[in-house]
Amino acid sequence: MEPERESGDPGPPALERRLRAVEAEVAVLKAALGDALRRIGLWEGRLPHANGAIPDPFTPPDPTGTPPPPPPPPPIHQRWDADGGDPPGRAGGGPGAAPPGVSPVPPPSSTVHVFPGTNDPRISPPHGDPQPGPPRGTERAPPKGAHHEPRVTPCKLQPGGGLSEDVPSGPPHHNVRPFGPCGLPPRAAPRAPAARLGLRLPGPGQPLQPARVGLRGAHLLHRLRRRPPPRPPPPAAPLPAAQRLRPLPLQPVVHIWDSATLLTLQQIGLGSFERGVGSLAFSCADQGSYLCVVDDSNEHMMSVWDCARGTKLAEVKSTNESVLSVEFNPQDSSSIITSGKSHVYFWTWSGATLTKKQGIFGKYKKPKFIQCFVFDAAGDVLTGDSEGNILTWTRAGDGRGVGKGGKETYQIGQQTRAHEGSVFALCRRRDGTVLSGGGKDRRVLSWSPALSLLQEAEIPERFGAVRTIAEGPGEELLVGTTRNALLRGTLSGGFTAIVQGHTDEVWGLATHPTRCLFLTCGHDRQLCLWDGQEHALAWSLALEDTGLCADFHPGGQVVVVGLLTGRWVVLDTETQQPLAGGSDGNEQLSVVRFSPDGAFLAIGSHDNVIYIYSVTEEGRRYNRFGRCTGHSSFITHLDWSKDGHFIMSNSGDYEILYWDVAGGCKLLRNRFESRDREWASYTCVLGFHVFGVWPDGSDGTDINSLCRSHHERLVAVADDFCKVHLFQYPCARPKAPSHVYGGHGSHVTNVRFTHDDGHLVSLGGKDTGVFQWRVLGGPSPEPR
């Protein structure tokens, strides 16, 4: 007999878990039952009789008493949009009353249902009009519609007239090619400081190698672009279809390029590296004949390769700690050094053997990280560490070492206090002097061969801390910073930025209405205006908070930026001075869009509301006009009609709504009224004109952004799988073909065409990239 539980004892934990599980099942069953009842209610008037005939809408009896002839069976494609408002010919509610000026609607061709996980469109079941209608022979056909079902909630799509009969079926005739990224590549990884992205200058036609590389980041840039996006943790249940679409991880590989033509000379290590390539270096004593690579595995496997043959000559486990840098001795290719977390290893390479000696810190404090090192004229090694010191390493047997040590050991011969904070960069100049770059103090220091301070310069705070230094022609220096800026100048004359970029995810993008300019903003709170012709940054400024969306006024002199806090700010593009601003709710803004005539500003918020402002004085004065309320989830995208009176909007629950702004921000419940409406832009990812861009198994979030070209022949798509797609417009066929372009190392957040459709701009997420693509080929017709 079991003992009685004390009063207040909730019972065994297993019983509570079972109770919660039952409650969850009941909730799911209720939702399924409600959906089933809703569907039954829509179909109850159209169930077939016992003889198989389908009942028709009410037909008035003939006064002569002659029974009406049996109606022909309706086509299987015929259906009504269940919640799309009144059918055509009944706008206004009257039976059979057509609105003034509306001609009879021809029969529809088909209704396409796109089902997740299937490869073919399904024909919808028969469905008629449950309301009384006009006599047989004068009854109008139902509107054409299409289902796009992303996984959670189906959304009804209303096609435009004639589209279903003549929709492009092939990929676009246009193509794009990279015009170049804006800004420097981001840090390799959180655990790998950007000091590894060194700057070197190659000779003409020489392979890209650390001894003479223009952008040593070119090695790592290719590796980053091949690195797959972050993977979610392994789920307990089978992966859904949307995650099965994610491309398989690519195997790490090293490509050697010609610095003049950027053609691939050799591919090394395919299938040999685990996770990724952490550090690499060419030998210098023999003109780059060998390559040393350290991968990102737990053991950080170190290997030496023959660059000409692409064969592996030696391999060994280096250490379980992070390896941040590797270099050959410039006078002796058999000597290799690696450094990283709390270690410096001196390697000797002989044939297929790699042996190491660990550097001994002796009486000196062991730093947490050793980020960089360089060889001096005497053959000693100078290292920069996280304590702000420059350590000089010598062999124990040459008489300059300090402390005890055996033969062929390396010890610290000198310690020099250099910077406040970490030393991220060391560079030996042609005259034998040494340059060091600091993180916290943002200084570039020049040292004599004996490490006596000669000269210093400070980098402006807006560019961030020093990450890497390279020597240019004459006295000129190149400095890379933590804010993805590349500076050029001298220690005496100062530095100016020649390249700048974002340092965190970039989401906001707007293109100028008449010039080849575009604006970007993101999580780094930077607002940047880029000159697409000069391929350079025009200006940048700091925002008060994260910028998520932006748009130009049609006049081009004013831009509005939406922030994470729900605030929005209007700026003058010439003076960068704020002109106006406001706050709508306390949730983030996802889209801001001016009407084509500049008379209205629509602001879509995560509080499910679209705020409308009237705009006067060329975009310098704003007054609240109204609110569009009716969405049941946050606003994701919106577009204005060409006349500036109507809005089409998407929401987070895959809903498409239409709004009459000029009529008082009213929700248009009859979707048929918007069937042939022309839209000034098309950025909504849900709609009949673009439902073909969605792949099978999509969960509704796989496409982040979409943009129609101004000549209305192309659609560019940014997806979650690091790709940019180019489709024909309209794209109203399931599984429409497209051109696919890679380059981003993370999810692509936004795409936009420039004013003349000559370029396409795409933004990256974790890769912080801003890519400019040139649009090639195909005709350039006038807008529709």
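Next protein, fold it too.
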Amino acid sequence: MNLICTEKKVNGNVKSDLPHSSMPQHMPGSTHMHTHLNKHPQAVTPLESRVRCSQVSLPALNLDRLRMAKALVDKAVKEKKVFSIEGPYPVVRAALRARGWVERQLPRSSPWGNRHGDPAAEGMDGADSSDDDGTDKGQDGDRDDDAYDMHAIMSRMVRNETTYLYWTTRKDAVDYQSLKKDQMTNHYAKAGSFTTKVGLCMSLRNLQWFDSTDPDTFFPRCYRLGAEDEKHAFTEDFRRTACTSLLSYVVERTGGDRKEDICNRKQMQGVDKSHKLQSNERLGAEVIDTALRVCQEYLNSQEHSDIDMLSDSPPSLSEQQWADFIQSYYLVIHDGVIIEGCTEYAERCRSMLARMQKVCPQLGTDGLSNIWIIKPGALSRGRGIVCMNRLDEVLRLVDSDPALIKDSKWVVQKYLERPLLVHGTKFDLRQWFLVTDWNPLTVWFYDECYLRFSTQPFSTIRLDSSVHLCNNSIQKHVQPCVGRDPSLPAESMWSCTDFRSWLAASGRSRLWEEVVLPGMRRAVIQMLLTVQDSVEPRRASFELYGADFILGRDLHPWLLEVNASPTMAPSTAVTARLCPAVQEDTLRVVLDRRHDRNAHTGGFQLIYKQAAVDVPQYVGVNLLVEGAQIRRPRPSPCKTFIHSHSEALRRSRPALRTSGHLSGKENQTDEVKRVWPSVSSRKVTMERSPTFQPLLDKRRRRLDLPSSSCPLPHLPDRHHTSYTRLHTCYEQAYARIKKIHRHPLSLNYVRPSLEIVSVRPVLKYSQGTHTQTAHNHIINQL
């Protein structure tokens, strides 16, 4: 093996790594180089300092290490333990190597990595599903660039082998169609139905088909503003929420201001001097009457009391009246204007809110400010998320980006204005769960989670993202508030153990096991049931997800979103302990448990395993319809006689003699006489023709016995046996015809308008012998 050796610069001089004797004493073109350097005397360097190249032989390789590497590789290939990792997962790489797996390293400039910015790849299948903030730059940090490193040598040995485990950051990094059954990957195809904001919003609306639980009991109301019908539904929801918020304001004002309301108003006066309370202005009580009437109409619609109303009946409030009401609502809630005589409506408002609570499960978390959080569906980690409390501002923001409107990627969700606070600060929970199969659905729930705190005190007046978004990618760039409680962690993270200790200090320790954990597990299972038919299942695949929850004041968990490829960066002391444990326990479930069903699964607990459901074999979109084609008979080339000519034919027919011997006059020509039987108004005689032959072979024709209008000739005694046999066949056919007549929709049904085709003589007499020459078929012309 040959390498190009260059020189090093030491103390201002360029030194060679090799002995001077091993370097060539003359280089081609050195005269030209010397001439060029003479033009710049200050750049002239000694001859030793010139860049020199030489080919040298590397020292002999360690054969023992090669033999060991070869043995490990052969064993790994035989046991199908070859893996590839794309992304910052040093813990997974080390854990797999410890289990005897050999890494088939992916190219550093992998074409998969270029797809991260591909707009086509950032659709429903995971553009905003990953919250990996990229803080862990160790994608290749544990790779040893030394050519003699043991893992590097083993990786070169398996570069042409099949990879049996792909662990990647993005789900579109692997072509699922080309994977074999024994190849594993840490993603499922088409999982964007719940790992994207739009997908989760749409999927949970189908929960009624899988479970009796109302999704509004664990998932805040959500709408796609890119769709016109949902934009209209959001507008109605905003107006109705303004009505209930106004009624809550009246109830709370008559009962005394709450502590957090007083705090919020003080913060509002201190933060924004120009935004002062207009306590001197007054509004009439008509605004309360309007809110009560709107709530009553909504209750009537929920109870179907308005079923007899005309569909084209005008709304109770016109657009102008709604605009005036919303403006009055803004004055009362945001600007502090007082409503005259509101105390007289306190009892009516309290009664109406109690009735509304039965049909609106989120009424207790709506608050007074009517805040909604707007999320662009194509971004992640809190980017582009804003909070707004005015309807016109929300619609104006959405209409400003036609591209997102076209793709229906704007999502607006009701903000929980009354969450559980720790020392006056908002937080959310990151909970991991693992899906190892979709049919049957198998869900593993991790027994530990962590809390992410905001660096600013909670307030419904300030709508900054630093107050309402707890993502670490946002909070790490914000300085903590000066008056922040010292009990809160400096890194703005708690483990669930710390949170349970805080609950125990307030006498609510049992609520974690009785309310929080069951609520999160139930929400995860119900959410997965709604998308089970959308995700493409693979027996050898698995995926780790990160669900974000927020707790209400009663510790009821509310699901916010689900992330694929949750971040595993050790950004704080809490994540530095939990994230490696989650990755190690994931491998225990998906690898160790495959070979040993009693293997330890770490912190993962099996919380749901669905009964196996047989899936019919997929036959594609082409459907096969079997059956026999009905063909219309083609007209016979023979001369066609109309039914009206039958009478003339009957009259022109010679008399049929019954004697066994012909007279001498009739024997003069000794030719065959065509005798036409009498044709009744219902029965005709037709000879089998080549045109009708295929149809007669396929379907049984309706046959009728000849009537008195078509008598059979008197046959001689010597033909009596043949006649008897023929008569018996006709009787059997007639018995079958009587059965067929019971089915009036038979394909053999012939209408009277059918023309008589190929009417020919039935019998011929030759040389004094009565002979039957053709098989005749008597067709019943119904």
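About the second fold: The longest strand covers residues 441-453.
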